[in-house]
Amino acid sequence: MHYFKYKNSELYAEDVPVSKIVEKAGTPLYIYSHKTFLQHLNAYKNAFNGYNHTICFALKANSNSAILRLLAKNGSGADVVSGGELFLALKAGIPAKKIVYAGVGKTDDEIAYALKSRILMFNVESADELKAINRVAARLGVNAPIALRVNPDIDPKTHPYISTGLKESKFGIPIEDALEHYRFAKKLSNIEILGIHKHIGSQITKIRPFVDALKKVLVLADNLQRSGINIKHLDVGGGLGIDYNNDSPPNPEDLSKAILPLLKKYNFNLIIIEPGRSIAGNAGILVTKALYLKHHPKKEFVIVDAGMNDLIRPSLYNSFHNIVPVRKNSRKKVNVDIVGPICESGDFLGKNRKINRVMQGELLAVMSAGAYGFTMSSTYNSRPRPAEVLVKGNKFFIIREREEYSDLDRRIKMPEFLK
Ligand code: LLP
Questions:
Q1: Ligand 1 within 6 A of 252 CB?
Q2: What does the DSSP assignment read for 131-149?
Q3: pTM, to two decimals
Q4: Which of 242, 277, 317, 366 to mutate to test the pocket of ligand 1 (most atoms within 8 A of CB)?
Q5: Ligand 1 pocket, 241 CB below 6 A?
Q6: What is the CATH number of the domain that holds 388?
Q7: What does the pLDDT look like over 367-408, one tens digit per residue?
């Protein structure tokens, strides 16, 4: 569900015509819907209502500070994977006690920053990392709250690049080694064991992998209990898919209905959920302008002003994003590739799309671009990053200015001999 709908053939973001926003903010442009974000966050809140829970929004999906503030004001916590994300989460007003910190490569500086900020817990991904956290905590004279991220070896049946819970994955600790790692953690002077964490992948469109993975984790919880290690927090990760192309993924309620009953005989005092895509994905679109039309003997191209530097998902994962005209028309349907201006053959937003013929200068909307869109953008080909706009009802707000050419060499220092 989202609030990007047509009214009289015009695409609206909530109550504002997309074309009107573009007049002010230009293209390429990310547009987000306030109401959609709230709706998705509330769906999680309602689904887990019966259990003490914290929803830790995964910042990697979207870390615009205005979006984070909006989520913070409505009770969201954060799942962070870097010092930068921790900084943004705290700055947006997300309480430290609602922040969990995952990632396989935390540095000493990042660990110290998180300890000083008093986050809820580290989701630890290796024995070496446990040692590092223990060492930094000892230096600071504090105890470090941790969960171990276990890898349950479950296939989430999604794209291999976004599967994280398989044996061959770099993430987490193999579940068969977890008990031993917990025992090791228990011996460390400045480590406080709080929880278990798992996250098996992203854009998961079936409930089954979540249940299978959780069952394995609960067997581990039983074994830990028997070994005198008490687990207070259960972090089930994120991963719920969204509708990109007439997919019908489960919703947060389906998820909670499948997993909460499994927890009845356990005494966890908190369940943590780390959704990213299912909160942000359908809450944003990328608007782009058709620059040129090009006919090759075997292909027709629409060349637009947004490229893989603005939205890399199609190029990187061959992901499908629906692409629709901002103003509907009744021209003949044609088969086209919608491609960006970047000098790479892999720079496309959509291939073999049957759409009403597009005219030069017209606007297209790339749907479901609110998650892993702007956060994965770059300035490749020295293209300044796009602007971002938040729509609330009949108002819209520029929440990130478009970068300028001068941003491209802002941090450059010219050696004296080259001046
Ligand atoms: N928790 C952890 C530990 C994660 O690694 C991730 C995502 C999440 C939560 C949030 O997962 P979500 O609810 O968004 O599925 N760039 C890729 C997605 C990479 C996801 C990485 N981890 C894409 O554009 O599809």
A1: no
A2: HHHHHHHHHHT-PEEEEEE
A3: 0.97
A4: 277
A5: no
A6: 2.40.37.10
A7: 999 999 999 999 999 999 999 999 999 999 999 999 999 999
